[in-house]
Structures are given as C-alpha cells and as structure tokens.
Amino acid sequence: MALTFADDLTARHRLPKQERDERRATMTEVPATMRQLRSLVTAEGELRLSVDTVDTPKPAAGLVLVRVEAAPVNPSDLGLLLAMADVSKAVASGSEDAPVVTAPISASVMSALTARIGKSMSVGNEGTGVVVAAGPSPDAESLLGRTVGFVGGASYGEYCLASPQMCLPLPDGASASDGASSFVNPLTALGMVETMRNEGHTGLVHTAAASNLGQMLNRICQADDVPLVNIVRRPEQAQILRDLGARYVCDSSEPTFEADLVAALRDAKATLAFDAVGGGQLVSQILNAMEAAIVPDDAPYSRYGSDVHKQVYVYGALDRRPIELHRRFGFAWGVGGWLLTPFLARTDAADLARLRQRVADELTTTFASHYTDQISLHQALDVQTLQRYARQATGEKFLLEPQR
Amino acid sequence: MALTFADDLTARHRLPKQERDERRATMTEVPATMRQLRSLVTAEGELRLSVDTVDTPKPAAGLVLVRVEAAPVNPSDLGLLLAMADVSKAVASGSEDAPVVTAPISASVMSALTARIGKSMSVGNEGTGVVVAAGPSPDAESLLGRTVGFVGGASYGEYCLASPQMCLPLPDGASASDGASSFVNPLTALGMVETMRNEGHTGLVHTAAASNLGQMLNRICQADDVPLVNIVRRPEQAQILRDLGARYVCDSSEPTFEADLVAALRDAKATLAFDAVGGGQLVSQILNAMEAAIVPDDAPYSRYGSDVHKQVYVYGALDRRPIELHRRFGFAWGVGGWLLTPFLARTDAADLARLRQRVADELTTTFASHYTDQISLHQALDVQTLQRYARQATGEKFLLEPQR
C-alpha cells in the first residue's frame, strides 16, 4: 500500500532525544527469528497454511517494528488467508512446532488466483503492539516504546513492520483488545461519513450493517446526527442494531425488504451507500430503491430518470458472485470501489489529524470492538477453530495473539 | 431537462432591433395546428404510434419555436418511440390522414414502463429548422429567423419548442441534413474528450464505435492526438473504422477479443471508457482488460488490485440485460451513468462556447452525419419502414422530414 500523506499526530508525540535513548535502552532485545503465519496457494489447487519461523525484519528508514500483541481476524483478512478454499475439507499436518493445514480450492476459484500461485504470503492487515525498533527518521523514532494500533499487512506474526503514517499511538492504559482494531474499522467508518460530506450527500446506507464496523458507524452517525439506513441479512442482526438505537434497519430476508428500503430512504434522504457485500443484486436494489424514493409517484415519465446522483461504493466482497445491475435508476448514478488507504491518501493532514484524534479520544466508547475468542498462532491452524472463524458468524469475533 | 448554464454564443448572434422586426415581418405565418408523431403505451401492453393534429405550441418567455426541417432517428429516440415493443408484430390502422401503428409489448418489458402507461408522449430528441417565433427575452429573440440545430424533445413534429441554450445557430449555407444531428452527437463526442481531460485520463475506449457518434469521436481523437480504443461487434463495423484511419479496433465477435483489448489498452494507456451498450458483460470485460493492461505480468499479487483508477461511463442501453460485473479489477474502479445535459450543465460558459464554436466550424467535416433514408412523418408509421429503422442496421441512418 503506497503511502503519500503526511501525518502530524505522530509529530505531537515526538520525544526529546534523551527520552528516546532511555526508552530504547529499556526495551527487550528483538530476537533474530520469529514465528509468522503464512498462506500459500499451490499450482495443484491447494491452500497451504503454516506457522513458519522466519527472520525478524529490520526497519529501514521511515519504518518501525512492532511487537504484535493482538490482531483481529476480519473478513478482509480471511479473503487473503483462506483464498476461498473449501475449509470444510481442511486437513491438519506438519509438526506440533510447525503446524500445517491444507484445503482444496475449486478450479473456478483457482482461475482468479493465478497471480498468487506459488507465492507464500504473510497475512494480517492490522493489529496492536509496542514499537520496539525504528529505522532512522524522526517520525519513526518518535514512536519508539509507544503502544500503537497499526496497519502492516503481516500482523499475524510475532513482529511486523509498519509505516508511522499507518500507526495510531494509543492513549495510556489502552489494552491489546482495545487497540487491535483501532485503525482500519474506526478510520473506515469515519471515512464513510467524511466521504458523504465531501461528495455532497446528507444520509448514508450501509450493508452488512451489524458488523463491528457497522456498529461503529451507527455510533458515529447517532453522535453526528447523520441519517443511516442499515441493511442486514437476518432478524438477529436487525435486533443487534435496534438494541444500539438504530432508527432505520432493513432486513433483506423479509418479504417487505424492497418497500421497507424505499420508505427508509425516502425518510433518511440517503443517496450514498457503502456496500461490503459486492455480489448479486444488492447494489442494484439499493440504487433502484434510491431512485424510487427520489421520484414522486405522480412525476411525469422520464427515460433518463431523476437528476439526483445516487452512489454506491463497494468496499468488500462478502459475496463472490458478479454484481448484477438492473438499471431502473436512470442515468444519475455511480458504483465504484472504495478502500481506506486511497481515502487516507487523498485526505489532507489537518482532516486526518482530526479523524485520528477522535479515534484516540473515543477508543473504548464509539470505537470499541468486542472479541469472543482469543487464539494463538498455532490455534489459528487448528482445523475446528479455523472452520469456526471462517464461518464469520454474527456475534463471533476472533482475536489473534501472536505472543501466546 | 433542466438548463442552468449560460451561453454566450447566441449573444454573439444578437440582432439589432430593426433587423429583428424585419425578419419577424418576412416570416411565414405559424399555423394554429400541426402534425406531430406521438407514442403511447396502453395498460393492455400495446404500443400505439400515431400522427396527431395538435395545437402548435406558443413559446413562453425564454423559449423559441422552431419550424422543424429534419430530425435524425437515433438509438436514443427509438427507446422512447418504440418502448421495446415487438415491432415484428406491428399492425397498421387509422386513416390515410391519421395513420396509427400498434405493436405488442411483453409483460417483462411492461413492468419497467409503468410510469408511462396511458401518457401520450411526443418524441424526437433533436433536429434542425428555422426559428419562427420567440418568447419575450433577448436570447430567444436574437435567434429569430436563424437556422439552428436544437434539442427539444418533440422534434418529430412540424414545430417544436426549444431553449436558446439548447440551440446551435448554424453557419450560412448549412443544409437540413448538415444541421439535423449538430447538437447531441457532436457535443456528446466532444464531452467525452473533455471528461477524459477533466478527470485526468489520457486515453479513451468507446463501444458501439462504428456509430455516427463513434465516427465523430474518431475524427476528434485523431485531430487532438488522443489514443482511442474502438470496440465493435462485427467485422464490417471494424472495417468502417479502419477505413477512417482508426488505430485501435477490437471486434468482440473475434475469439481473440479479450487479448486484443488488453494489448490495445496497454498501448493506448486508456483508463476511461464510454459505453453505449450497458448490458451483459462488456463493462466488466473492459475493466478487467484495463486492469490486466496496467498490472505487469511479474507484479506481486495484491488482493486490492492496482491503484490506477479505471472508469466506465454508460451513456446508452443498446443491450437491455443487466450489467454484470465480474470483479477481477481490484478496488480502484468506477461505473456510472453519463448524459449530455448534466455534462453541459456543469461545464462553464467559456468552455461551452469553445465546444459549440468547434461544432459550427467543423459541421461538414468532423461532425458530418450521413443519412441513407429521408422519410416523412407518415412514412415513419409505415410498418415496413418502421421495421427497417427499428433494426438499427450498421450503415443505415434515417432522417425524418416533418414538413414533407
């Protein structure tokens, strides 16, 4: 992930040289090798997960090394980790010290994975831990000894490199559980509301809305008085959101879903959606419902539709089927990809600092995450455990603790 | 269509009061009634086309009345005119003076047409003719007596109202055939190139590229040195473009289409497409080919794809099937609707004047349109003629002449 944006929050935490040297001196020695979870797709159509012993990386200029205390198992991690393999057929092998799990990948999935065949990959988008080493640069060195939430792409290991711009220094007393999901979900949820304002919309739609991220978004929108239409797939998910005080909850398993959605959209005046599903007809249903909510029943017919722009950003791929757009929503529409990193890259420093400060200030309230299971690297390769977190069941959330 | 933009080209043609009065005096009397083609969808699932005698409209403040000399039969007109009826089953009725054609509409199509059931609609997006009356306003009055290309929404009739902002005064000596398509296609083609520049792309893709519009776009791109990848559906269409000197032509009926497209995109560095088809998998093929052209074969695997934004604007609906997006193109992508009128509305006055001046200057070269058939309003309701223009065959283009 290319990082080009500036960050002045880390500057606020810049330490005097003497204090930096003291911290460095009190830190534990970094071992030469470490354990790391790795994911490999073989040309024979097999996923191979392993806990390998690898060289501990050394931070180059402008990077820090984090001793990883905890890392969340998010849907976005599972895509890379499991490569859409059939985990119901997972088989354990390897030794107790170096466990291995293999699982078959279907031929149709393999055709989408050619670029990663034979390339053993590190896994884990984000995590939390202590900065134990820094390459030469003031931004990196200023973080020495601090507990940070970070994005690094290899957080399922004992140590992980990160860029200071992708580290969020945590307030004193923050636990590993508080900090593990302090970067991606909080800034993604805030980024959605920022995007809404930047692009001139006044209400939001969110799918897979009962997720940890969705719950954060609900708390932000309630605090900021932003109308939010929550779309879920099951009654128990709807209940989670209603218990949180959500005003608009539409359950796609209900026969009245489309009418419910139009009614909610008409009331919320929401013309921007963030969609984690990204397959099937949901994007289309949202755009058509937005158009139906905008156009009055007695409006004259227009083959061009309304002139109100309706936008859906797809930020996930929970459903791997193609997106099907049934166009009854006129010509004022857009569908596109949305990711956190490019959003951060195009956000100016002052706005970024404001967003990051809010995350730090509201870490255990607005941005609290809850985990049902804490597992070690080795437990992550236990077949039954793996099948459980692969299911992504509502209400279940796994936290990986690489030091265990 | 809401019009909010200013226009200073008409101001250049503003006439002194005396000359205006002289022109008004020499103009033929406007008759109280006129013939107009109308399209009706009945609740019983029938399309009913008729040539009705209706009151000639009187221009309110800020509008002009054009005596229509010629109007093109474009794909965008056929959508409204024919309402996706099965014209192979068209039946003529009515009288010689007031012909009527009816054709059945399938139940699935009807469900998309509920908003226009029972509403008799005027047809014809654009045309050319002489301004014979003007509502009180300097912009409208300045056009009195001038031959203009115009957009009015009812050009398939003897007279049609238009806004001065949607009129393009034609150079002296321009024929009806020169002027009939002087607004929509020329400004759409120029709008595509403007959009490319405004959004930071340096090359274009165009589908249904052998159309009149596509041929204009080829001439513009060759003059402006813009790499243009033309996508067509048949070998004879490919030949039309090669004869025009097009460098990149990809025929989707060829077995090598996808590879051809990747190679052309790699060379042209085109990351923006304008698509007239809008159904099936073409949008997806373009995005996937763009991504394949961007990512080198030996690049490391990234589940997020390249960070180069790939955009497809859909401006037509030649294929009524859903758009199917098979996402192998990462997260830096967008698909959206594009229409001329909103583009004009968001373009500032100086840029608009520049575009319109170019159309006037190059009316018989870059922006030349060719017609194979000239028909009257009554001939438009001749069943065999109707079936011919409904087919939209390559190389065939109909011009409606309402005064015949």
List the SSEs and their pairings:
2 copies of one chain form a homodimer.
Chain A: H1 9-12, H2 17-26, E1 33-41, E2 46-55, E3 64-72, H3 75-82, E4 91-94, E5 99-104, H4 107-110, E6 121-122, E7 126-134, H5 138-141, E8 147-151, E9 159-162, E10 167-169, H6 176-179, H7 184-198, E11 204-207, H8 212-224, E12 228-232, H9 235-243, E13 248-251, H10 257-268, E14 272-275, H11 282-294, E15 310-314, E16 323-325, E17 333-337, H12 340-345, H13 349-361, E18 373-375, H14 377-380, H15 383-391, E19 398-400
Parallel strand pairs in A: 11-12, 11-14, 12-13, 14-15, 15-17, 18-19
Antiparallel strand pairs in A: 1-2, 1-6, 2-5, 3-7, 3-9, 3-19, 4-5, 7-8, 8-10
Helix pairs in contact in A: 7-8, 10-11
Protein architecture, described:
The structure is a homodimer of 404-residue chains. Chain A folds into two domains: 207 residues, Quinone Oxidoreductase, Chain A, domain 1 (Alpha-Beta Complex); 159 residues, NAD(P)-binding Rossmann-like Domain (Rossmann fold). Helices cover 32% and strands 24% of the residues of chain A. Chain A has 15 helices and 19 strands. In chain A, helix 11 links the parallel strand 14 and strand 15. Chain A is globular and about 75 Å long. The N terminus of chain A is likely disordered. At the A-B interface, strand 16 and strand 17 of A face strand 16 and strand 17 of B.
According to CATH, what is the class of the largest domain in chain A?
Alpha Beta
- Name the chain pair with the biggest interface and residue counts per chain: A-B, 39 and 40 residues
Please give the radius of gyration of chain A in angstroms: 22 Å
Low-confidence regions of chain A: 1-13
Count the beta strands of chain A: 19
Amino- and carboxy-terminal Cα gap of chain A? 29 Å
pLDDT averaged residue by residue of chain A: 91
**Count of domain modules of chain A:** 2
Which word captures the global form of chain A? globular
Helical content of chain A stands at 25-40%
Question: Which class best fits the helix and strand makeup of chain A?
Answer: alpha/beta
CATH superfamily descriptor of the largest domain in chain A: Medium-chain alcohol dehydrogenases, catalytic domain
What's the CATH topology label of the largest domain in chain A? Quinone Oxidoreductase, Chain A, domain 1
Strand portion of chain A, in percent?
Answer: 15-25%
Oligomer: homodimer
